[in-house]
C-alpha cells in the first residue's frame, strides 16, 4: 500500500512540475525560426510575455529592414516569378503575431493570430496624399486587428488549420465615393512548412467589393470558392479551384457591363517524376453571361482539356531557375540566357494535346442560338539538335519538325455569323465537310504539307 501511495505521490509531483519546467521543445523551435527570419532581413521584436501555470503567451512584432534579402528568401519557395510590384507592396510593412502554447513538454501545438499593423511605405505615402482621413481609418482598422489570420500548428507533424477573420466594412471617401468590402467564412487546413505547405485546402463563402460614385457603380462578388493544392515539389503538383458564382457589374453613365459565370472548375497539375516532364490543365464552367448596351450573349457548358508532354526535365529546370533570377537581377544578358534556355527546352521536342476545347451552345441577345463548336488537336515538335540555329537563321526550316492534326467542328449558324463579320472566310467553305448542322475541318500539317479534309490547299 505504501508503494502505491509513494508512486501516486511521485506521479502527482511530476505532473505538477511539468508546466514549471516549461515546453522547451516549442521554445527552442520558436527561437530558431526567429533567428532564421532575422538572417533574411526581418526585424523581430518581442513585445510582451504572459505565462500562467498551464500556458504561455508571447506577442511579437515583425518588420522588414532588408526587403531585397527577404524577397530572395521567398523566391526559394516560389515556383513562379514574383511580380515586380511585390517589393513596393511589402517594403516597410509591420506584422503582429500573438502566439500561445501549452507549458506541458509533450505538447507540440501552437496557436497564432497573425495580423498586419501597417501598409507598405509607398502605400502609406500615397494614401496620405490622396485622403488623410481614409488613411487614418485604414491605420485604425489594421491596429484593431481588422485583418487577422488564425492558425493552429503542430510543429512536429506540421499539420495546421485556421481561419481568416470575417470583414464587413463600409467607408465614404472625401470625394463621396462609397466603398464596402465583405469577406465571410474563410477556413483552411493543410500540412507542411507554413511558407511553402505540401498540402493546402481552403474554402470561402463570400468576397464582395462595391464601389459607388456619382456616375460609376462597381459590384464584384465571388461566392463559394474552394481550392486544393498538393505539392510533391516545386515542379510536381496538383492544384484545383472551384467557384459557384462570379458576378461583375460595371455601370457607367453611357453603358452597363454585366458579367456572370457559374460553376467554374479549374485543375492544373505538373509531373516531373517520369522520364520527361508533363503538364495538364482542365477548365470548365456551366454558363457565362456577358451583357452590355451593344451586345448580350451566353456561353453554355465550356470545357477545355490541354496537356503538354515529353518535356526534357533538365532543360525545363534550367529555364525555371533562370526565370526565378529575374526577381532580383533582370538584365539584358539574363533575358538572352532565358530565351536560349527556352529554345533548349523546345529542341528536345514536345507534344501539345488538346483533348477538348468546346462549347455546347452560344446564345446571342437572349434568344438566338448559334449551337456548338468543338476543337480537338495535337501539335508535335520533333527533337531537333539544330533547333536554335534554325530559329536564328532559317525559321522556315522548322516546318519539317512540326506535325499537326486538328479537328474543328463548327455549327453552320456560327459560320454564317462569322461570314457577316469576315467575308473572306467564304473561301474556307469549299474545304469543309458538311455534316448535318455543322461544318467539319479536319486539318493536318505533316512533313511540311498542309491539308484540310484530305485536300491540299491551293495557292
Mind explaining what this structure looks like?
The structure is a single chain. The chain has 459 residues and is an alpha+beta fold. It has a domain at 1-156. The chain contains 10 helices and 22 strands. The chain has a 22-stranded antiparallel beta sheet that branches. The longest helix is centred in the first third of the chain and has 20 residues, at 2-21. The protein starts with a helix and ends with a strand.
Layout of strands and helices, then pairs:
Blueprint: H1 2-21, H2 24-39, E1 42-51, E2 55-64, H3 67-75, H4 86-90, E3 94-102, E4 109-116, H5 121-130, H6 132-143, E5 149-154, E6 159-164, E7 167-172, E8 178-193, E9 196-212, E10 217-231, E11 237-251, E12 256-271, E13 277-291, E14 296-311, H7 313-325, H8 332-347, E15 350-364, E16 368-369, E17 373-381, H9 387-393, E18 402-411, H10 412-421, E19 433-435, E20 438-446, E21 449-452, E22 455-456
Antiparallel strand pairs: 1-2, 2-3, 3-4, 4-5, 5-6, 6-8, 7-8, 8-9, 9-10, 10-11, 11-12, 12-13, 13-14, 14-15, 15-16, 15-17, 17-18, 18-20, 19-20, 20-21, 21-22
- SS field, number of helical segments: 10
The amount of beta strand, in percent, is over 45%
Which structural category do the helix and sheet elements fall into? Answer: alpha+beta
> Could you tell me how far the N terminus lies from the C terminus, measured between alpha carbons in angstroms?
108 Å
Q: Uncertain regions: pLDDT < 50 for 5+ in a row?
A: 5-22
* Largest sheet properties: 22 strands, antiparallel
Q: Indicate the percent of residues in helices.
A: 25-40%
Radius of gyration: 29 Å
By DSSP, the count of extended strands is 22
**Backbone shape:** globular
Q: Look at the structure and give the mean pLDDT.
A: 82
Amino acid at each position: 500500500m505504501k508503494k502505491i501511495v509513494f508512486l501516486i505521490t511521485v506521479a502527482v509531483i511530476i505532473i505538477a512540475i511539468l508546466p514549471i519546467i516549461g515546453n522547451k521543445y516549442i521554445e527552442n523551435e520558436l527561437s530558431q525560426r526567429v533567428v532564421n527570419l532575422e538572417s533574411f532581413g526581418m526585424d523581430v521584436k518581442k513585445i510582451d510575455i504572459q505565462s500562467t501555470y498551464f500556458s504561455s503567451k508571447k506577442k511579437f512584432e515583425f518588420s522588414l529592414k532588408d526587403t531585397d534579402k527577404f524577397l530572395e528568401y521567398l523566391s526559394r519557395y516560389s515556383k513562379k516569378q514574383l511580380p515586380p510590384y511585390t517589393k513596393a507592396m511589402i517594403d516597410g510593412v509591420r506584422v503582429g503575431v500573438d502566439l500561445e502554447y501549452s507549458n506541458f513538454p509533450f505538447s507540440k501545438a501552437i496557436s497564432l493570430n497573425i495580423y498586419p499593423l501597417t501598409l507598405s511605405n509607398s502605400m502609406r505615402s500615397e494614401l496620405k496624399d490622396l485622403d488623410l482621413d481614409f488613411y487614418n481609418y485604414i491605420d485604425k482598422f489594421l491596429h484593431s486587428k481588422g485583418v487577422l489570420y488564425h492558425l493552429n500548428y503542430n510543429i512536429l507533424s506540421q499539420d495546421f488549420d485556421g481561419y481568416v477573420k470575417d470583414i464587413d466594412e463600409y467607408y465614404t471617401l472625401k470625394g463621396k465615393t462609397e466603398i464596402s468590402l465583405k469577406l465571410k467564412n474563410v477556413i483552411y487546413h493543410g500540412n507542411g512548412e507554413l511558407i511553402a505547405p505540401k498540402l493546402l485546402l481552403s474554402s470561402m463563402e463570400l468576397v464582395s467589393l462595391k464601389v459607388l460614385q456619382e456616375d460609376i457603380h462597381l459590384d464584384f462578388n465571388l461566392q463559394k470558392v474552394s481550392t486544393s493544392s498538393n505539392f510533391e515539389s516545386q515542379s510536381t503538383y496538383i492544384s484545383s479551384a472551384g467557384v459557384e458564382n462570379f458576378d461583375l457589374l460595371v455601370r457607367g453613365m453611357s453603358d452597363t457591363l454585366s458579367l456572370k459565370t457559374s460553376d467554374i472548375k479549374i485543375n492544373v497539375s505538373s509531373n516531373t517524376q517520369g522520364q520527361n516532364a508533363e503538364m495538364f490543365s482542365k477548365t470548365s464552367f456551366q454558363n457565362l453571361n456577358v451583357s452590355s448596351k451593344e451586345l448580350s450573349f451566353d456561353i453554355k457548358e465550356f470545357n477545355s482539356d490541354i496537356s503538354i508532354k515529353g518535356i526534357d526535365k533538365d532543360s525545363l529546370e534550367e529555364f525555371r531557375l533562370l526565370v526565378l533570377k529575374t526577381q532580383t537581377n533582370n538584365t539584358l544578358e539574363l533575358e538572352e540566357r532565358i530565351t536560349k534556355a527556352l529554345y533548349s527546352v523546345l529542341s528536345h521536342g514536345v507534344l501539345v494535346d488538346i483533348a477538348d476545347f468546346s462549347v455546347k451552345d452560344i446564345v446571342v441577345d437572349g434568344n438566338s442560338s448559334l449551337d456548338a463548336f468543338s476543337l480537338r488537336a495535337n501539335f508535335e515538335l520533333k527533337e531537333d539538335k539544330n533547333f536554335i540555329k534554325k530559329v536564328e537563321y532559317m525559321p522556315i526550316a522548322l516546318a519539317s519538325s512540326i506535325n499537326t492534326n486538328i479537328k474543328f467542328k463548327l455549327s453552320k449558324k456560327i459560320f454564317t455569323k462569322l461570314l457577316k463579320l469576315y467575308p473572306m472566310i467564304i473561301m474556307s467553305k469549299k474545304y469543309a465537310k458538311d455534316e448535318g448542322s455543322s461544318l467539319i475541318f479536319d486539318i493536318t500539317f505533316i512533313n511540311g504539307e498542309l491539308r484540310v479534309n484530305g485536300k491540299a490547299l491551293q495557292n
